[in-house]
Amino acid sequence: MSTQTRIVLSAEVKPIVDEIKQVTSASSTSEVVSLMLTRYGKHFITWWLSNPHQNELAAAPVLPDEFVVLQTE
User: Fold this and answer.
1) pLDDT in tens, 17-61
2) How far apart are CA 38 and CA 32, in angstroms?
3) Which of 36, 43, 49, 66 is the most buried (most CB within 10 A)?
4) Domain residue extents for the chain
5) Contact, 25 vs 14, CB < 8 A?
C-alpha cells in the first residue's frame, strides 16, 4: 500500500536523482527514493547508530559538495 509524503529536494540533489533515474530506469523521483530506502535504509540506520557522534555531525553545516533531503510533514 502506498502512502503519500511530500519531499523537497535541494537544487544540488536534483542532478543526482536524475542520474540515478537514468542509470536504474526508474520512472520517477518517488521510485528513486523508494529504491534508495529499500536497498540502503537499514544499512544507513545501523551505520548512524554505530557512531555516537552522528547527532553532532548532523547539526554541523553542510559542505557545498554534500546534499540534504528535506522532508515536510
Assistant:
1) 999 999 999 999 999 999 999 999 999 888 888 877 777 767 666
2) 10
3) 36
4) 7-55+67-71
5) no
